[in-house]
Design brief:
The chain has 319 residues and is α+β, with helices and mostly antiparallel strands. The protein has 14 helices and eight strands. The strands form two sheets. It has a five-stranded mixed beta sheet. Strands 6-8-7 form a three-stranded antiparallel beta sheet. A hairpin with a 6-residue loop joins strand 3 and strand 4. The protein is globular, with a radius of gyration of 20 Å.
């Protein structure tokens, strides 16, 4: 009976995720589709799927679009050293643009293989992947139904991983907003993030139906919480030991995350055109804090931009 219940919950979660990813971008956008065409031309037959996530899906158009590009292997990158970087510390991040100013649309895309993506949302200790894809995203391109099913399974798994690792941090009784707000806030602390306080709660309010339905589908499935009989209220079933271990685990994620974020910044400086300006723009967008870089810092960010980033940190631009 329990196995049948778990299968039913898994089917329900897949249906929720399928509706989200298929309906997120079911509207025309020539600029977005022009960027997609560039990606398809660049990677050809090695391209398995392109996902989109972030503020674009919340209606913001004055922003860089955020894509995830999933390949079947790294040979399509036409650069051996960049392929090694992607294997060592995924994802690699690149920038593309479509059109000319002032109507130019830009995007950054993160690149890795589908195999690595599936492993990351299932097994990675750090929250970098499974926290992002527990949130709503959309499928812009998919090679075939087999790939589509793998992606839907992976996104469903990201929801399972996220909720299972957040539940021990919650009080005895909580609702869906508390789970998502607490969980996203914890993951922000594991990277260099510039979001203002309360940002996680605002994300929940944009898609409350999706977030609630995911938690309702997973409640009672051995992830540390059960329905308590009241609408949108759940009972924490995590043991004291799991709570203690979880606290230690999130502390380790914060330590690990700062190191990984530093390495990813260094890597992006080698693969991302205008990496420093993009980073400063994003920090200003989320925190309101901006410091003008020098020409030398723009040309050689890996060597000369660290004092600038330290000053931004001192001003509270990111944590």
């Amino acid at each position: 009976m329990e196995a049948e219940t778990n299968r039913g919950a898994g089917k329900m979660l897949r249906e929720i995720v399928t509706r989200q990813v298929s309906g997120a971008c079911d509207f025309p956008d020539e600029q977005r589709d022009g960027l997609l065409d560039q990606i398809r031309a660049r990677y050809g037959d090695n391209l398995l799927a392109v996902l989109i996530y972030g503020s674009y899906l919340r209606g913001k158009r004055d922003t860089l679009l955020d894509f995830y590009v999933l390949l079947d292997n790294y040979r399509a990158m036409h650069s051996t050293w960049q392929g090694w970087l992607a294997r060592a510390l995924p994802p690699n991040v690149y920038q593309i643009h479509n059109g000319s100013p002032p109507g130019e649309t830009r995007a950054k895309y993160a690149l890795l293989t589908l195999d690595r993506f599936e492993h990351a949302v299932r097994s990675d200790f750090h929250s970098y992947f499974w926290a992002r894809f527990a949130q709503p995203c959309g499928i812009l391109y998919c090679r075939d139904d087999t790939v589509s099913n793998r992606i839907i399974d992976a996104i469903s798994q990201a929801c399972v991983t996220f909720t299972g690792r957040v539940a021990p941090c919650l009080p005895e009784s909580f609702n869906a907003k508390q789970l998502w707000s607490t969980g996203l806030s914890l993951t922000y602390q594991c990277e260099f993030r510039s979001e203002a306080p309360g940002h996680a709660g605002q994300l929940f309010e944009y898609w409350p139906g999706y977030y609630r339905s995911v938690i309702e589908a997973l409640a009672g499935q051995g992830l540390g919480f059960d329905p308590d009989g009241s609408q949108d209220t759940f009972r924490n079933t995590c043991s004291r030991q799991s709570r203690r271990l979880s606290a230690a685990g999130w502390w380790l994620r914060r330590v690990q995350g700062k190191a990984l974020s530093t390495l990813r910044i260094l890597k992006a400086a080698a693969t991302f055109d205008g990496a420093l300006d993009y980073l400063l723009w994003k920090i200003k967008r989320h925190s309101g804090v901006y410091i003008q870089p020098s020409g030398l810092q723009r040309r050689y960010p890996v060597i000369f931009a660290w004092p600038l980033l330290f000053r931004l940190w001192r001003k509270g631009a990111f944590r």
